[in-house]
UniProtKB/TrEMBL annotation:
Pfam families linked: Epimerase
Ranges in coiled-coil conformation: none
InterPro entries with a match to the protein in the record: Epimerase_deHydtase, NAD(P)-bd_dom_sf
Protein name as annotated: NAD-dependent epimerase/dehydratase domain-containing protein
Domain NAD-dependent epimerase/dehydratase: residue ranges: 7-27
C-alpha cells in the first residue's frame, strides 16, 4: 500500500499563498492539499 502525501498550506487565500497552492497542485497531483 502506497503512503498518501499530505501538504498543509496556511494563508492560501492571499496573493503569494494562492500561487503556492496552484504550484503544489500541479507538481503533486496525487497529494492531498
Amino acid at each position: 500500500m502506497e503512503k498518501e502525501n499530505a501538504i498543509l498550506i496556511t494563508g492560501g487565500a492571499g496573493f503569494i499563498g494562492s500561487h503556492l497552492v496552484r504550484h503544489f497542485v500541479k507538481k503533486y497531483p496525487d497529494s492531498k492539499i
